[in-house]
Amino acid sequence: MSETIDLSQEQLTMSNIPHLRQKRTSAWIMKQVIIALMFPTLGALYFFGWRVLLMIAVAVGSCVLFEYLFQKLTKRPVRINDYSAVVTGLLIALSLPVSAPLWTIVLGSGFAILVIKQLFGGIGRNWFNPAVGARIMLSVFFGEQVSIWVEPGAAADATTQATPLGILASNGAEAVSSATYADAEMPALLDMFLGTGLPGNVGETSKLLILIAFGYLVVRRIIDPHIPLFFILPVAVIPLVTSGFDLAFMMEHVLGGALIFAAVFMITDYSSSPFSPLGKIVFAIGAGILTVLFRYYSDYAGGVGFAILIMNATVPLLDKYLQPRIYGHKRVPVTARILSNG
Amino acid sequence: MEEEYYNFYRKEVFAIFPKLKWKREGAYTVERKERTEHRQIENASVPSELVYPLTMHIGKPATPVVDVGDKVKIGTLIAEKAEMISANTYSSVSGEVIEIGDHPTIQGNSPCIIIKNDFQDEWNAPLFAEDEKLSPEEKLEIIDKAGIVGMGGATFPTSVKLSPPKDTSVDTLIVNGAECEPYTTADHRLMVEYAKELIEGIRILQEILPVKKVYIAIESNAHESVAVMNKEIGESEAIEVKELETIYPQGSEKVLIKKLTNREVPPGKLPADVQTLVINVGTTYAIYEAIHLGKPLTKRITTVSGEPVKEPKNLWVRIGTPMESLIKDCGGFRSKPGKMIHGGPMMGRTMNSGLVPVGKGTTTVTFLEKKEAEMDERSPCIKCSECLNVCPVSLQPIMISNAYEKGDLKKAEKLGALDCIDCGACSYICPSKIPILENIQKAKREIKAAKEGA
Ligand code: SF4
Ligand code: SF4
């Protein structure tokens, strides 16, 4: 028709709808999580010194290496470029004390990547949260090596300190108390919030930095902000009620241990949480309630981790019975669905 | 470019709260309407040959009533509705029929009537005698005769829609001005420039269907049209402009009904079954022209846009004008196009021939750049649940897609594959670039085939 515009000369591709996709990719999402993890990482470096860097290097390096080797050996497509192994490595390093021997980090990384992630089918398929699994495995089998919490600044072989949660466990629930716990005093709430002078796992001490990371993830729309809140809710409410509305006691529970770190980085993990929106809420609240139970009735310091693992195991059930109601359909009551088996 | 940055800050940084990651039954897609939303509608040039497919509507193809060599005028009936669900087709120029045969259309090669323009622009007699006073029933007949179909892209014959089954009583009419497809601004400009005519059109609809309430649905990014329509309505209580959130697919029929009336159309039922009808603003304008001016449907507003287009425009286009002529009106390309889409980039259809004509449902012609036309490689699902979050009908898109890929059609059906409204929000949002909707559509086709076979 015209000399200048001849559409038959253009290479026009045909495609299925939609013809446009959003820009973000899975790898981009993982990179955002890594950026968010930089806040607690910086805190860990500041509070616990350069050994943190070594821990992270070992954890990230071994996670990526294990993933690479597994995918090579089983002749699967190598997908280390999706950065998910880096995230797992960072999470493992940040949830160990600065005194953790390097071999425990390698062992934990191997367990997380090979057993929990890849044996279940790789990214998006794993039932359990790899980093949480590694942490639990280490504390169960190598409790002695990974439960020495030192105060920031002290050398790695300095005196053992009780973490605030250990103190809570002994005071709050009359659990078996050791000499260390009895003498120890609860740190000031502000210190628990800022992480100053607080013993604990390197990335988990400064709640302030974790909350900044939370803000970043929310603004980037990587995580759903409601889910961490639903997780923390029971951990705040139950202690508040059982202690006769002692706000300080509540705050000790909320700020204590790995709770905030887990709320931002673990409970929001994609693979190991439910698909269904309602399922997600039940999942988070359930993990919160279990956390309180662990804290009340055992003196084991990794209650948060166990709570998450147990809830991870319920995900298939939650996904099956709490499916969203389809537009125009009537909601089938959960009971009816259980009776009709799905 | 600056505008893109501004929009980015407005949407991503300042307005974070409505944009939280949360079940939101829609996707915040790119909008990209800046280049055409303030451009007044211009008349497209009329080419020397126009092509009228016999299938510019849903239903049976129309039957040609002219022969090669026949002289026609603007508004001469050239093909007649074949059955109940079908529509008349009129010539949009004066001239001569030169061919009846296969020609490229959006459905591939299909039968068309081709008319050579004599550039006299002579009009045929109006649809009815000027001084005639019409009853509501007669008005409905005129709408039927004028060949009006859903002009938001669905192209369902409007007269059929306006005659709901006897046992239903429609009490709410939704006039759909929510253009949720990126780039599209045709309806927005229509509302800004022809508000008075639209209100007249709505009055006609009110006569035909005695409804209690009329909502004009407009997305919040089309501020200007909200203001204009509000001013035009004045004090009327029965008509109300509803400004809706800008989210895809806000303009979809089922979604609009839910958002405005909180009613849900049950599976396999019609909007009329929940006492509601949805009519597009373009259709409303066509109704106005038919009843007030006696003109059949021969032209429409089409947005021609996209990054490669030099001067994107909103155009009054004579139906039957080939794409090539439109792009010439827009000054050609400033960069290489990689895709030409009939409609918007979410639900439109790709075309690879510039000879495809504008039909009754051509809201937009979108051109995408080469780099955007290429799809990223698929990677495994990371279970981010974004596809669930955006699905407007609360399906679990990836589960249906997985069931289909495993060959489990039973499960796909149980998960609601047939309830999918083909909006594509799930595929758009998926960071792993999984062709979710493609799988669901295949599943649907196979489920339906199995049902018919049984
Ligand atoms: S499943 Fe269907 S209705 Fe849901 S988002 Fe995907 S295309 Fe849209
Ligand atoms: S299919 Fe895509 S959008 Fe849906 S959960 Fe998987 S990665 Fe996310």
UniProtKB/TrEMBL annotation, chain A:
Keywords: Cell membrane, Electron transport, Flavoprotein, FMN, Membrane, Phosphoprotein, Translocase, Transmembrane, Transmembrane helix, Transport
Pfam families: NQR2_RnfD_RnfE
GO biological process, one term: electron transport chain
Superkingdom in the source lineage: Bacteria
One term under GO cellular component: plasma membrane
Chief place of localization: membrane
Residue spans crossing the bilayer: 28-46, 52-70, 82-100, 229-248, 254-271, 278-297, 303-322
Membrane topology: Multi-pass membrane protein
Cofactor: FMN
PANTHER family per the UniProt record, alphabetical: ELECTRON TRANSPORT COMPLEX PROTEIN RNFD, ION-TRANSLOCATING OXIDOREDUCTASE COMPLEX SUBUNIT D
HAMAP family associated with the record: RsxD_RnfD
Name assigned to this protein: Ion-translocating oxidoreductase complex subunit D
Species per Swiss-Prot/TrEMBL record: Natronobacillus azotifigens
From TrEMBL, chain B:
Gene3D superfamilies xrefs: 3.30.70.20, NADH-ubiquinone oxidoreductase 51kDa subunit
InterPro entries referenced in this protein's UniProt entry, alphabetically: 4Fe4S_Fe-S-bd (IPR017896), 4Fe4S_Fe_S_CS (IPR017900), Ion_transpt_RnfC/RsxC (IPR010208), Nuo51_FMN-bd (IPR011538), Nuo51_FMN-bd_sf (IPR037225), RnfC_N (IPR026902), Soluble_ligand-bd (IPR019554)
Gene Ontology biological process terms, A to Z: electron transport chain
Species this chain originates from: Natronobacillus azotifigens
Gene Ontology cellular component annotations, sorted alphabetically: plasma membrane
Keyword Protein biosynthesis in annotation: no
Gene Ontology MF, one: metal ion binding
Pfam families registered for this protein in UniProt: Complex1_51K (PF01512), Fer4_10 (PF13237), RnfC_N (PF13375), SLBB (PF10531)
Family recorded in the similarity comment: Belongs to the 4Fe4S bacterial-type ferredoxin family. RnfC subfamily.
Cellular location(s): Cell membrane
Cofactor(s) recorded in Swiss-Prot or TrEMBL: [4Fe-4S] cluster
EC number(s) stated in the UniProt entry for this protein: 7.-.-.-
Function recorded in the entry: Part of a membrane-bound complex that couples electron transfer with translocation of ions across the membrane.
Subunit and interaction comment: The complex is composed of six subunits: RnfA, RnfB, RnfC, RnfD, RnfE and RnfG.
Key word Endoplasmic reticulum present: no
Name under which the protein is recorded: Ion-translocating oxidoreductase complex subunit C
Enzyme class: translocase
